[in-house]
Specification:
single chain, mainly alpha, 3 domains, four-stranded parallel sheet, 29 helices, elongated, binds iron/sulfur cluster
């Protein structure tokens, strides 16, 4: 209905488009759909080179994940302009795609029903009155999103990767958006149907065209040209999806649809599989799982992980983004997608190209990069696409350990753990030395206990940390908790060994602990395990269930908080004044494995406010789930770094900057590393566990004496 005004509220589909143009467009569309399908199939073939994943989520879970993680973009927020730009671009693109799809449906239905161009099936009336402004808003959102992304890219923040083809993609999207509005402006001018209030952006374009001298009679040619430009650009964009950075939208959707594992989880290693294949860990790219290979393509190189990585911040040769991108390049080279692929020269082997001939571990990814990771999970937590650089790192560490490529002090710690059941290499007979005068009952002496206090190797053998265990005992007694310890039967959980890559040692230690648990009826619903170590808690919660265990485990700050709320643990009103802590300020360092991995941030703060007074707690800039790593996790505790090269040194600086006299912690590893970091620094900050602060001044039920408050970290 060229040049005519509808009495019906609608607009003609394919108006001013000749029959020949329509046929060419159909053929091009078919070719583009074919290219898209071919590109996805090629990529899927690449992903299928990996090991099959054992767990497969059901369809209900997949649909929920698609809704929450993909459609609602739950993991994208929280990054200021970058998040806003992504929401606008994604939202605009999705709405425009759905709108274009609806146009196609209308066109096919109308053709099947033999309707003419003036007689649409549903593209009219109220539907059209909603459709048109929604599409205009979506087009605007897409353009604003592109402009915001362009501004960010122009400023070149160090965290985002810079590739010239990204500019091409942005230009393509902008051209599609602008030609879309231009097309609508030309249509309005040609048909003289402004649809006021509906095509509000198109109407502005129409006015602009009129002011430059265009008239209704002379725009048909321009309209036709703009239509083809818009159509070709849109089709090119669709065809480019599998071959450009836009691939992340396809791979990311696949990745997010299967769900995100809880933080702190590592992939399981079935021992039967190890025995059958003789392989452990990943030395070749095809040994990663299919899900991991999808993750490589999902990574959009946004740099969030790099920004969050404490090892990168400390100048270690580790960038989680580069780990993922370099493995991706290696995957493509190995499977023949392209002959060479770039390797990040500053972090990797120093070359500028990688080929399939280069080994993955040692050739593409340096062991130094892998050993720099503290397994803090910050990279996994911030990745909007569900990529786990940590998962890749631990898999490759497993290979390095199995291949005897770990040397020096960390290797010695593993040997000691293997020999004696603890990384300190001390005798199991000395496990109760910390409690000689406390008469702490063992589980043999008190088999009917409700709570097992898991002391852990650090508090059993490290003289400073023994004070933490003694404080916990004092608090449990003050609250009248019926508890016992495993004493000489306790072994290292194997948490650090597992994260260092020694899976066999972990399984051996876990097996022994599980035997002890079974012997004394420690299982969910029968006895609760309380531990002051977030690493042990996480291992019992995430690692041990992979070996069939079902345990009820809780961190001491949460347990003590429960006791306070239940009125069983009473902190006297004058406690902060009596112990002197009320006259000082306290800052609290959230351990990664407690705050980020387990989400426990309120309980320790509630206890600290109770012990030191609500107004005395000052926060560091990075706190709660966004805490900064102390540098000891993932076996880094056993690496001999020079003081100026330690990963947690910026954290110590942050703590000193608060001016607090007490740095409260709730993890034995954090206590050791922060105390080490503070030693030699010009400050009067002492590190203390939350339990120590709380136990100060409490009258021990057993002795009837108040323990002397400890005022320094005592190293
Ligand atoms: S792994 Fe995730 S956070 Fe890191 S660069 Fe890739 S997409 Fe961004
Ligand atoms: S787990 Fe932590 S240290 Fe390791 S790569 Fe990720 S952010 Fe960096």
């Amino acid at each position: 209905m060229d040049g005519q005004t509808h009495s019906l509220l609608t607009r003609e589909i394919f108006g001013n488009v000749s029959s020949t143009s329509k046929v060419i467009f159909y053929l091009l569309s078919l070719a583009v759909v074919g290219t898209l399908a071919w590109g996805i199939a090629l990529r899927a073939r690449l992903w299928r080179m990996g090991k099959p994943n054992t767990e497969r989520p059901g369809w209900r879970i997949i649909l929920i994940n698609l809704w929450k993680l993909v459609f609602l973009q739950r993991r994208v927020g929280g990054r200021g302009t970058a998040s806003v730009a992504h929401f606008l671009l994604f939202g605009g693109f999705v709405v425009l795609s759905i709108g274009t799809g609806l146009i196609a449906v209308e066109h096919v239905l109308a053709s099947l029903l033999g309707r003419g161009p003036k007689d649409p099936v549903f593209h009219k009336g109220l539907y059209f009155a909603v459709y048109e402004p929604v599409m205009e808003l979506a087009g605007l959102a897409l353009l604003v999103g592109c402009v915001l992304f362009a501004c960010r890219r122009w400023k070149r923040p160090p965290e985002i990767g810079h590739e010239s083809r990204d500019w091409l993609l942005l230009s393509l999207l902008v051209t599609i958006g602008v030609t879309g509005f231009m097309l609508e402006g030309l249509r309005i001018l040609r048909e003289q149907t402004p649809l006021p209030g509906l095509s509000f952006v198109g109407a502005i374009f129409a006015q602009g065209l009129e002011t430059v001298g265009m008239t209704a009679s002379g725009v048909a040619g321009w309209h036709s040209t703009a239509w083809w430009l818009h159509a070709v650009m849109a089709l090119a964009l669709i065809a480019l999806f599998p071959f450009s950075r836009l691939l992340h939208a396809i791979a990311g959707t696949v990745r997010l649809a299967v769900g995100i594992e809880p933080l702190g989880t590592l992939s399981s290693v079935p021992i039967e599989q190890v025995e059958a294949t003789g392989e452990i860990g990943v030395a070749r790219v095809e040994q990663f799982t299919r899900r991991q290979l999808v993750e490589l393509d999902a990574c959009v190189s946004c740099g969030r992980c790099e920004q969050a990585c404490p090892a990168f911040e400390a100048g270690k040769p580790l960038s989680p983004r580069n780990i993922v991108q370099d493995i991706r390049g290696h995957m493509e080279a190995t499977f023949g997608w392209r002959a060479t692929s770039p390797v990040s020269p500053q972090f990797q082997t120093g070359g500028t190209d990688s080929t399939a001939a280069r080994s993955l571990v040692g050739g593409v990814i340096l062991p130094e990069a892998l050993w720099s990771c503290t397994t803090c999970s910050a990279c996994v937590d911030v990745c909007p696409l569900g990529v786990s650089p940590l998962g890749f790192i631990v898999d490759m560490r497993r290979f390095l350990v199995a291949d005897s490529q770990l040397r020096g002090s960390p290797a010695l710690a593993l040997q000691k753990t293997d020999r004696t059941g603890n990384p300190w290499g001390m005798s199991a007979q000395d496990r109760m030395a910390w409690a000689t005068d406390l008469h702490v009952p063992t589980v043999q002496e008190n088999p009917d206990c409700e709570v097992i206090y898991w002391v852990g190797c650090a508090a059993a053998y490290d003289r400073r940390l023994q004070k933490v265990a003694r404080s916990v005992v004092k608090l449990l007694r003050a609250a009248g908790v019926n508890f016992a310890v495993l004493g000489n039967l306790e072994r290292c959980t194997g948490e650090a060994a597992r994260r260092m890559g020694d899976e066999l040692l972990f399984q051996q230690l876990a097996g022994k602990n599980l035997e002890t648990f079974a012997r004394f009826g420690v299982r969910r619903g029968a006895k609760r395990i309380v531990s002051h170590c977030p690493h042990c808690v996480n291992s019992f919660q995430q690692d041990y269930p992979q070996l069939g265990a079902s345990l009820d485990v809780i961190h001491h700050t949460e347990f003590l908080s429960e006791l306070v709320r239940a009125g069983r643990l009473k902190i006297p009103p004058g406690h902060s004044a009596a112990t002197g802590i009320g006259a000082t300020t306290v800052t609290y360092h959230d351990p990664c494995y407690l705050a980020r991995v387990q989400g426990v941030t309120a309980a320790p703060r509630a206890l600290l406010k109770l012990a030191s007074g609500a107004g005395n707690l000052v926060e560091m800039p990075r706190h709660g789930r966004q805490t900064a790593c102390c540098g000891a996790g993932g076996g880094r505790m056993w690496f001999d770094d020079a003081p100026d090269q330690r990963i947690g040194r910026s954290r110590v600086t942050e703590a000193i900057a608060t001016g607090a006299q007490t740095l409260a912690v709730s993890c034995p590893f954090c206590l050791i590393t922060t105390a080490d970091g503070l030693a030699g620094r010009a400050c009067n900050t002492a590190v203390r566990d939350v339990a120590e602060i709380l136990a100060d001044g409490l009258v021990s039920e057993r002795t009837g004496n108040a323990d002397t408050p400890e005022t320094s970290h005592g190293f």
